[in-house]
């Protein structure tokens, strides 16, 4: 929150695909001194079109390829008339490396999303309406969206998350890393202290601590049968937003798991209606 975040130099590279509705480009942009890769779907037509930055869930960087993740959402939202920028994050695909990112709780991904929005705003491209930008994140990317809302209030106009991780980083580390023997958990403990040893640090890295800073409406989607990210995490986050008087809605989907199946079309109808209301 104290840092002056930078994002610029959005560059369209090769054409990856053309459809009747949009063109898909490889892209790069600058975020706090790093070059970050990704893809961008640009709708056909004159524009300008509102834009969405997409933050994907966890995929092992060793197997990740550019634009991987949120493929259904990338396609549908571009067909609905949104410029879609899907960031790869640092340490993924063609992005620059940040060797400290994992031990620093992957907070660099938040910088990459902020940088993507700022790069869109400074791109001076006639098809992009830089006054209308939203965020969408899934799973780990949902946590990145939470962070972005508290770090940079007013940066975007609306945000949507699907099956998000906990808004308490210590809980995520216990749930996904420590119990699975990930050696990075021990590195995190050594650098920052455990929650028992350094409770102040762990409070300060939780977006729940700063929910009063949020200015954008937030829509949360979560399945009741999610065995990766428990529904209780979203219930607690939504309750904190509500207590702080924020514009938040939690949609629950009976029987849906982490990745959404039969109810995905309905969830996207709700998502596009939400973005249309706040960005059109």
From TrEMBL:
Pfam families: Peptidase_S9. GO terms for molecular function: carboxylic ester hydrolase activity; serine-type peptidase activity. GO terms for biological process: proteolysis. Keywords: Hydrolase. Residues 73-279 form the Peptidase S9 prolyl oligopeptidase catalytic domain. InterPro entries: AB_hydrolase_fold, FrsA_esterase, Peptidase_S9_cat. It comes from the Bacteria. Belongs to the AB hydrolase superfamily. PANTHER family: DIENELACTONE HYDROLASE DOMAIN-CONTAINING PROTEIN-RELATED, POLYKETIDE TRANSFERASE AF380. This is Alpha/beta fold hydrolase. It comes from Streptomyces sporangiiformans.
């Amino acid at each position: 929150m104290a840092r002056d975040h930078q994002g610029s130099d959005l560059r369209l590279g090769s054409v990856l695909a053309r459809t009747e509705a949009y063109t898909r480009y490889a892209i790069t942009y600058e975020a706090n001194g790093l070059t970050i890769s990704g893809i961008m779907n640009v709708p056909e037509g004159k524009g300008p079109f509102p834009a969405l930055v997409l933050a994907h869930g966890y995929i092992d960087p060793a197997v990740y390829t550019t634009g991987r993740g949120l493929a259904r959402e990338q396609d549908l939202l571009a067909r609905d008339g949104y410029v879609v920028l899907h960031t790869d994050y640092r340490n993924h695909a063609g992005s620059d490396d940040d060797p400290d990112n994992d031990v620093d709780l992957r907070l660099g991904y938040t910088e990459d999303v902020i940088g993507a929005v700022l790069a869109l705003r400074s791109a001076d491209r006639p098809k992009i309406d830089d006054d209308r930008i939203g965020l969408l994140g899934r799973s780990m990317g949902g946590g990145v969206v939470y962070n972005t809302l508290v770090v940079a209030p007013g940066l975007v106009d609306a945000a949507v998350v699907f099956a998000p991780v906990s808004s308490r980083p210590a809980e995520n580390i216990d749930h996904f890393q420590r119990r699975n023997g990930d050696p990075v958990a021990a590195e995190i403990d050594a650098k920052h202290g455990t929650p028992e040893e350094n409770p102040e640090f762990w409070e300060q890295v939780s977006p729940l601590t700063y929910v009063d800073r949020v200015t954008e409406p937030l829509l949360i989607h979560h399945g009741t049968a999610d065995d990766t990210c428990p529904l209780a995490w979203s219930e607690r986050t939504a309750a904190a937003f509500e207590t702080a008087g924020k514009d938040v809605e939690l949609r629950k989907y009976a029987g849906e798991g982490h990745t959404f199946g039969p109810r995905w079309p309905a969830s996207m109808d709700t998502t596009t209606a939400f973005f249309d209301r706040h960005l059109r």
